[in-house]
Predict the structure of HTH-type transcriptional regulator NmtR.
Amino acid sequence: MHLVPAERAGHRIIDGHRVCDAVAAIGDPDRVRAWADRFSLLADANRLALLLALHRAGPLAVSDLAVATGMRDPAVSQALRLLRAAGAVAGEKEGRVVRYRVVDEATARLLDEYAANAPV
């Protein structure tokens, strides 16, 4: 049981090789937390809708995203602030207009997976 952390080594283990496989599959706790945080961003239907719109249509302004998603401008802005803080999206200013786009590659891959499995 070389992968079992020392603080858990004294626990009763039934299938040692599977426990080691499970520990290896879980991997680094910080990486697990980062992915959990990424999934929590996607767990909100409004944020997911914004990400899907941005991923598929490309850079969009807040007002355009509001029309596309049926959300109000302030709600879009608030969600984008959260997504921007998490590093999932970035805004590029063109004059007075800020257009947002998906910049996190891991999030983009998850959105691709969603699109590939969405009903037609």
Remarks:
- The two ends are 47 Å apart (CA to CA).
- The longest strand covers residues 89-94.
- The chain has a mean pLDDT of 89.
